[in-house]
Description:
Blueprint: H1 2-22, H2 32-54, H3 58-94, H4 100-131, H5 134-158
Helix pairs in contact: 1-2, 1-5, 2-5, 3-4, 4-5
Amino acid sequence: MKNKYSWDMLRAALLIIAATFAAPTFAAGGSTSDMDILREKVRADKKYIVQKNMDLSEEESKVFWPIYEDYQKDLGKINDRMAKLINEYADAYNKGALTDKTAKKLTDEALEIETSEVKLKQRYMSKLSDSMSWVKAARYVQIENKIRAIVRYELAQAIPLAY
């Protein structure tokens, strides 16, 4: 039950982050420092979830955590691209109906972001599988996928369809 509680805590924090990405035009209420504090809390909660679910030996931990930190930095760049894209979409959406040119540009960027994330996972899966069993490397990818699924679900609910 402890792991379930941990996932619930992380899910709540991720929902807040997803909501801030999805509603950029309404984000005036929170300060940058508040968002930085929230992001740090989410990072800590996420790391706790990973740690609780990976069941790493001491030797595996020494190799895994630096890879994890590098992955999070690279994933952060993808998250920044996604936030920028959502802001661009919100700006275009708030101006009225999207043009085909704008819709194509935004869609192309969204697909590029997805492709970048897949390539990132592939690159890091290679690093992980070189340092631990494939089962544990796969488990980490599953954990990341579950976390990303929560964020994507909330974003999908919050972002209106193009018109």
